[in-house]
Amino acid sequence: MIERLTPRTAKIAIFAVAHATYWDQFPGLYEKIMGYHADLVAKVRANGAEVLDFGMVDSSEKAFSAAEKIAGSGADLLFCNMATYATSSVFAPILKETNLPMVLVALQPRKAMDYTKASTFMQLENDNICSVPEFTGVANRLGKPVTDVILGALYDDKEAEAELSEWCEIAKVLHSLKGARIGLMGHVLEAMYDMHADPTAAFSAFGVHVPLLEIDDLLTEYHKVTEAEIQEKIKLIKAEFDMPEPKSDPVTKKLTEEDLIQSAKSACALDRFIKTYNLTGLAYYYEGQEGSLARSLATTLIVGNSILNAQGVPMCGEFDLKTCIAMLILDRLNIGGSFAEFHPFDFNEDFILVGHDGPHHIAIAEGKPILRSLIKFHGKPGRGASVEFKIKEGPITMLGITQTAGGSFKFVIGEGISKKGAIPPTGNTNTRGFFAPTTKEFIKKWVMEGPTHHYALGVGHHGKTLEKIGKILGIETVFVK
Prior knowledge:
Elements: E1 11-17, H1 21-25, H2 29-45, E2 50-57, H3 60-71, E3 77-82, H4 92-97, E4 102-108, H5 120-125, H6 132-141, E5 148-153, H7 158-177, E6 182-186, H8 199-206, E7 212-213, H9 215-222, H10 227-240, E8 252-254, H11 257-276, E9 281-285, H12 293-298, H13 302-310, E10 315-316, H14 321-332, E11 336-346, E12 351-356, E13 370-374, E14 384-388, E15 394-403, E16 409-419, E17 429-434, H15 439-447, E18 455-459, H16 463-473, E19 476-479
Parallel strand pairs: 1-2, 1-3, 3-4, 4-5, 6-7, 6-9, 9-10, 16-19
Antiparallel strand pairs: 8-13, 11-12, 11-18, 12-17, 13-14, 15-16, 15-18, 16-17
Helix pairs in contact: 7-14, 7-16, 9-11, 10-11, 11-13
């Protein structure tokens, strides 16, 4: 019943390059090459991106004209189709005048020429690699190195198609960061120095705007919630969550009707809040006076947050703007993005529990997530419904965003494995995380990079993709191994 609110998309500009002299020398070559270009455009479009096709650029004059159009197109990424040999003068103006990551795509139509029938025409059809060294060399001389080069065959090449797809996914991240609105509401939990972040620095590094919001803004929406909205949300919650009897933890009990209704109403208020302030995501922490409506609302957002995470709206507690941005990045890669931290080691089986007591991305849950009523939230005020589940079994990726002594942001990336096994029935999310060479050695390396205690947790191994995103954004990146 949970559907994404925000589509994953991107604008990708693409142009082909060639040497105009060929067209009179080899009749029909232009038409052949533009047919191959159309097939490449179709492959990019099939990855869920909006394609802005600027056609053939085969002279410096056309390059200057194309550069002006591409610069004003709103594109997130630029593919240069190395259709055949081209002089670097047809690409240098575009690289110089457009402030976009550029990927050279050199995919030849044939995996190999038929040497018994080979001709100059056939060679030129498949000369995609020929000017790549010239282009990369000139890019370095301009001080604007190309971001990547994709080599391979245009047809039936799974590796090349995977690289093309990866860059389309990266473009979706760049598209979502540009102009995103990550709200901040409340304050940092007292004494958490690692949570503080400067909204201006976040805009400078990621292009996100940070609206500063009040609990009263959320309360205004809470008072507008209708009974029909609450009942519809209860219906969704009952369909998406299990509500079992309590186990060993005396802090937990079976979800009460009171907590179900309160969580549903708070979730409805969040839905309205996100819409009213046009938020891409939210990081918050608020305690409020004991017995106040503000406390009741601020401490019962976990269920609504978890649903919104699955709908593509990253929500995290403890006022953690940095991790909210990390969650957005993983969500737009379509790999989840749960709000997570480290819990106790299991030195007997060499794993560590990874999870949190707050919002999670239930789209990547292993099985149906669980709701329990907690009589207290450890370390924080409040009580009520809390979400418990495990991340899907298999490869996992962590992205932490921290800051250096100079204030600049830093990516800390790790990969591990989520394996089947019992987790504590505490009403909190936990997953058994296994890391190489041993979990203890990995965690020591991780903490020595100076991360925050939170990170975004996703499924699959995507560390190399995150490294590329860090490079494009100009952010120091460490891949812990």
